[in-house]
Design goal:
By secondary structure, the protein is α/β, with parallel strands linked by helices. The protein has three domains: about 1-150 and about 275-345, FAD/NAD(P)-binding domain (3-Layer(bba) Sandwich); about 160-270, FAD/NAD(P)-binding domain (3-Layer(bba) Sandwich); about 345-460, FAD/NAD-linked reductase, C-terminal dimerisation domain (Enolase-like, domain 1, 2-Layer Sandwich), CATH 3.30.390. It is about 30% helix and about 25% strand. It has helices at about 15-25, 40-45, 50-65, 80-105, 165-170, 185-195, 215-230, 320-335, 365-370, 385-390, 420-430, 435-440, 450-460; strands at about 1-10, 30-35, 110-120, 120-125, 135-145, 145-150, 160-165, 175-180, 200-205, 230-235, 235-245, 250-255, 260-265, 265-270, 275, 310, 350, 355-360, 375-380, 395-405, 410-415. Helix 3 (about 50-65) packs antiparallel against helix 4 (about 80-105) and helix 3 packs parallel to helix 6.
């Protein structure tokens, strides 16, 4: 039996399911194909959501152990890791079922199986449960199959000793020692989780700084704070080999001077990036062009070299972020029906959900210098923010970069409490082309963390009140 749809989305992650819902809202008969067996993609199943659950729970555990310092006397604090993991899994299950409900509510046909191109308008679905094959036809097709972790050459994940972020979410016991290869967002988040729960964490990074691409001043402050929390950093070290041993693994490295050093560890988390998940789609059957990084080539409307086939999210160029994929999902759906969907890539925030949080939007100082754009800086420390001081959570600062002549906000970089929420205000301001003065003249409630944003905006014009 052949089913005919006006639009089919391959992939049910944040980009895919959002795209499918919007296509259906716009009046198209729509299907969504997801191979995992549950919707939400990497983000919801084995990425953003479970990691944020563990980040929160491990932070609660850490705080509870230190409550007596704040005048709250408690008994012995014990970790029940099994219960913590069940709590994490429950959050994932509730949310994935919620997404399934949303597809049903919006009349999207949901196929649980692996989709691949049989021809330019035909998709063959190998269903998960009964291994049955279903052939469907579509007028328009959107590829939204996301990304998968990459390892180092010659090193394979076993998800027990040498793990990706997926394995790092499922430990049954707290490891005594863990080596994290790569100082990016994911490695530092997972390193923070296990460090708080009692693991000795060592981060090995090839560069001389962590979080590549982040504003350098924020990156340096971030590393300082993580060191204070007990995480060990080994910068400008290249991993040459990872060998399993009787007790775990040996990570062999070489520093920039050529000195060799071995790290004996229980667990190795390899967190060196992700790559587009396009294998098994049979893209060659339809002649889809890829770029040099094996990403699907698209134009500004997310259209591939095949007129009716589109691609969004981690399979195309740009930051591999769930919210970027969601915005592209909405935009491509609107483009398909003749509307003017677009994504402003200059206002896509990035957040690291450690404690403190780190958030960034727009240009960094390094990028502005490279582009030869003259700018002003406004900074404000959370040490001078009354709400942050009152709750003893005052590490970090807000930094706003504005055009030297026009005062237009060009970028903002935050490290501190609730940075991931505070960045949204600056995102809205940038979307409307606001100046730093616009933010500075907007009344902010007192006492709130958001006042630090206002003060940083005032500081652009050297008129901060509380510093």
């Amino acid at each position: 039996m052949t089913n005919k749809f006006q639009a089919v989305v391959i992939g049910g992650g944040p980009g895919g399911y959002v795209c499918a819902i919007r296509l259906s809202q716009l009046g198209l008969k729509t299907a969504c194909i997801e191979s995992r067996g549950s919707l939400g993609g990497t983000c919801l199943n084995i990425g953003c959501i479970p990691s944020k659950s563990l980040l929160n729970l491990s932070e609660e555990f850490h705080k509870a152990k230190n409550l007596s310092n704040k005048g709250i006397e408690v008994g012995e604090i014990k970790l029940n890791l099994s219960k913590m993991m069940k709590n994490k899994d429950k959050a994932v299950t509730v949310l994935t079922k919620g997404v399934e409900f949303l597809l049903k509510k919006n009349k999207v046909t949901y196929f649980k199986g692996t989709g691949s191109f049989k021809s330019k308008n035909e998709i063959l679905i190998k269903e998960n449960e009964n291994k049955k094959e279903t052939l469907i036809k579509a007028d328009k097709i959107v590829i939204a199959t996301g990304s998968v972790p990459v390892s180092l050459p010659g090193i394979e994940f076993d998800e027990k000793i040498i793990v990706s972020s997926t394995g790092a979410l499922k430990f049954e016991h707290v490891p005594k020692k863990m080596v994290v290869v790569g100082g990016g967002y994911i490695g530092l988040e997972m390193g923070s989780v296990w460090s708080r729960l009692g693991t000795e964490v060592h981060v090995i990074e090839f560069l001389d700084h962590i979080t590549p691409g982040m504003d350098k001043e924020i990156s340096n402050e971030f590393m300082k704070i993580l060191k204070k929390q007990g995480i060990n950093f080994h910068m400008q070290h290249k991993v040459e080999q990872i060998k399993k041993s009787n007790s775990g693994a040996i990570v062999s490295t070489k520093d920039k001077e050529g000195n060799k050093k071995d790290f004996s560890t229980d667990i190795v988390l390899v967190s060196v990036g992700r790559k587009p998940n396009t294998s098994g789609l049979n893209l060659e059957n339809v002649g889809i062009e890829l770029d040099e990084k094996k990403r699907i080539k698209t134009d500004k409307h997310f259209k591939t070299n095949q007129e009716h086939i589109y691609a969004i999210g981690d399979v195309i160029a740009g930051p591999m972020l769930a919210h970027k994929a969601e915005d592209e999902g909405i935009a491509v759906a609107e483009n398909i029906v003749g509307q003017s969907g677009h994504v402003n890539y200059d206002t896509i925030p990035g957040v690291v959900y450690t404690t403190p949080e780190v958030a960034s939007i727009g240009k960094t100082e390094e990028q502005l210098k490279e582009l030869n754009i003259k700018y002003k800086i406004g900074k404000f420390s959370f040490m001078a923010n009354s709400r942050a001081k009152a709750i003893d959570d005052a590490e970090g600062f807000v930094k706003i970069l504005a055009d030297e002549k026009t005062d237009k906000v060009l970028g903002a970089h935050l490290i501190g409490p609730h940075a991931g929420e505070l960045i949204a205000e600056i995102g809205v301001a940038m979307e409307f082309g606001a100046s730093a003065e616009d933010i500075a003249r907007t009344c902010h409630a007192h006492p709130t963390f958001s006042e630090a944003v206002k003060e940083a905006a005032l500081s652009v014009d050297k008129r901060a009140i509380h510093s």
